């Protein structure tokens, strides 16, 4: 554990448990504590930080609620494998959603090409017979661990503008801010499928492991379909969160 005397400034106006929580969160997110690594015991943290047990437990409770740590009875508190939680009440990109939760999100572009799209893609984008589309294939990372293989398809008048651009961040802000396309809503469907060889390779999966596949069709504010995606997530790294009301 790092030197606690350097972690909690004496002049900080924040409560001690918040300072401890924020310090532990920072060390978890920057990799100082690895996935499934045991955190120091409550007694060790009490001594290191010079605080009471209730203060340590308040800090750990917040980290539990954020999904950053988990406890095993009689064994201690351990770092959780990062799990992306995306709320579908608001249309937002992976990076936007993860940044709001304090995670580091990034992307690696595998390919970008203009091609004849699969029939399901052409139908979703309302393309005429013979029309081509632009496919962008990327791997998405959460805290530098691969969690998603993303195949995105765009009409050529939109996707054609993406060649040569930096696609390592969310594309939604690019559509809005660079291309001037106001986004409207999206249709989303979910299913579980077995990962193919390519997806297994990029997501470090074993043969026979299932993935969560999300199909998302995004429209502009005028209702035109502009982005159709297959988002293939590790089953242990992603959760969609819904809220529905009975009226």
UniProtKB/TrEMBL annotation:
It comes from the Bacteria. GO terms for biological process: negative regulation of DNA-templated transcription. GO terms for molecular function: DNA binding; DNA-binding transcription factor activity. It comes from Marinobacter salinexigens. The lineage of its organism: Bacteria, Pseudomonadati, Pseudomonadota, Gammaproteobacteria, Pseudomonadales. Residues 14-82 form the HTH gntR-type domain. InterPro entries: Bact_HTH_transcr_reg, Chorismate_lyase_/UTRA_dom_sf, Tscrpt_reg_HTH_GntR, UTRA, WH-like_DNA-bd_sf, WH_DNA-bd_sf. This is GntR family transcriptional regulator. Keywords: DNA-binding, Transcription, Transcription regulation.
């Amino acid at each position: 554990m790092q030197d606690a005397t350097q972690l909690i400034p004496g002049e900080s106006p924040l409560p001690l448990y918040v300072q401890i929580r924020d310090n532990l969160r920072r060390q978890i997110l920057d990799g100082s504590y690895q996935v499934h690594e045991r955190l120091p015991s409550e007694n060790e943290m009490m001594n290191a930080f010079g605080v009471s047990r209730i203060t340590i437990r308040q800090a750990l409770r917040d980290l539990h609620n954020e999904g950053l740590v988990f406890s095993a009875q009689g064994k201690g508190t351990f770092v959780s494998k990062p799990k992306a939680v995306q709320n579908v009440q608001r249309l937002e990109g992976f990076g936007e959603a993860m940044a709001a939760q304090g995670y580091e999100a990034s992307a690696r572009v595998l390919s970008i090409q203009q091609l004849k799209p699969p029939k399901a893609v052409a139908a979703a984008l309302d393309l005429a017979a013979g029309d081509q589309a632009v496919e962008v294939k990327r791997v998405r990372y959460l805290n530098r661990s691969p969690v998603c293989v993303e195949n995105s398809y765009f009409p050529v008048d939109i996707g054609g503008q993406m060649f040569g651009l930096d696609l390592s961040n969310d594309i939604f802000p690019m559509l809005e801010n660079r291309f001037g396309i106001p986004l409207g809503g999206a249709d989303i469907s979910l299913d579980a499928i077995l990962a193919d060889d390519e997806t297994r390779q990029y997501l470090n999966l074993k043969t026979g492991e299932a993935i969560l596949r999300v199909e998302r069709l995004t429209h502009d504010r005028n209702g035109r379909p502009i982005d159709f995606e297959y988002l293939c997530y590790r089953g242990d790294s992603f959760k969609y969160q819904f809220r529905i009301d009975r009226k």
